[in-house]
């Protein structure tokens, strides 16, 4: 479980750009949507495939899988994930998003 906390902290620490690639105001910080998106992308990249697995990897109860599934749908709608049946995978755009954010370190 400490890995999940570290994962979220790592993702949140490195977010300082908006979706259009411009620098965000450091005083304002990343939006909640950006944080949620990168957290989901990060755990999917590390091997979580279904909503319950993603919830658990984020340090949430598996019972929250329906809520996480709605968040996955939102991220997939932006083209960062594909969701087929109960399996979620990163798209090329999702990988690029993670790489861009990691480059901002």
Task: Write out key terms for the chains shown.
8% strand; 105 residues; disordered N terminus; mainly alpha; two-stranded antiparallel sheet
- Low-pLDDT stretches are 1-22
Provide the succession of SSEs.
HHHHEEH
Q: What proportion of the residues is helical, as a percent range?
A: 55-70%
Strand order of the largest sheet: 1-2
CATH first level = Mainly Alpha
**Number of structurally distinct domains:** 1
Your description of this structure?
The chain has 105 residues and is mainly alpha-helical. The protein has one domain: Winged helix-like DNA-binding domain superfamily/Winged helix DNA-binding domain (Arc Repressor Mutant, subunit A), CATH 1.10.10. It is 55% helix and 8% strand. It has five helices and two strands; from the N terminus they run H-H-H-H-E-E-H. It has helices at residues 2-13, 32-45, 51-57, 65-77, 92-103; strands at 81-84, 87-90. It has a two-stranded antiparallel sheet. A hairpin with a 2-residue loop joins strand 1 and strand 2. Helix 2 crosses helix 5 (92-103) and helix 3 packs across helix 4. It starts with a helix and ends with a helix.
């Amino acid at each position: 479980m400490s890995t999940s906390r570290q994962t979220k902290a790592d993702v949140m620490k490195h977010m300082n750009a908006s979706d259009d690639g411009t620098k965000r105001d450091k005083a304002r910080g990343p939006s909640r949507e950006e944080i949620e998106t990168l957290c989901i992308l990060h755990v999917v990249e590390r091997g979580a495939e279904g909503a319950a697995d993603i919830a658990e990897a984020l340090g949430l109860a598996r019972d929250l899988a329906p809520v996480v599934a709605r968040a996955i749908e939102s991220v997939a709608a932006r083209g960062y994930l594909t969701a087929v049946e109960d399996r979620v995978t990163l798209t090329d755009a999702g990988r690029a998003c993670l790489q861009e954010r990691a480059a901002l370190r």
